[in-house]
Amino acid sequence: MQAATNTRKICIHCGTLFQPTSQRPNFCCAGCQFVHDLIAKNGLGQFYELQEGGVQPVKSRVFQKRDYTWLEELAQIAERESVGSLHLDLQGPRDKAENIAEMAIELSSDIVS
Questions:
Q1: What are the tens digits of pLDDT across the range 38-66?
Q2: Which residues pair with 17 in a beta bridge?
Q3: Residue 52, CB half-sphere, CA atoms under 13 Å: how many?
Q4: Which residues, 6+ apart, have CB-to-CB distance to 93 below 8 Å?
Q5: Residue ranges of the domains in the chain?
Q6: Which residues is 18 bridged to in the sheet?
Q7: Residue 96 to residue 102: CA distance in whole angstroms
Q8: How much is the pTM?
Q9: pLDDT tens by residue, 7-22
Q10: DSSP, residue by residue, 66-88
């Protein structure tokens, strides 16, 4: 295991400068580590090659205010209906897209159960 140092490093997911720790020597936060591991585990490492100027840090996007009023009518319909649907537009290698679709189906069945 790599020991943490007092020097700042650049997160290998989002490019943010951070102080490494022994638990996360290469990532600024658990979110970046999780997303990077998910991308790598599913063979989607080309994601990083396609990024120009890096990936925006996860933590800054999470706290941005958003207008969700457009969802109110859809939420009311979903509450009245007993059956829902999920539409995915997946791009990339077919086998990886199918793998992601299968994961989404598994997740949705867990939610319904």
A1: 999 998 888 888 877 666 665 556 567 78
A2: 10
A3: 0
A4: 43
A5: 1-64
A6: 9
A7: 10
A8: 0.44
A9: 899 888 888 889 999 8
A10: ---TTHHHHHHHHHH-S------
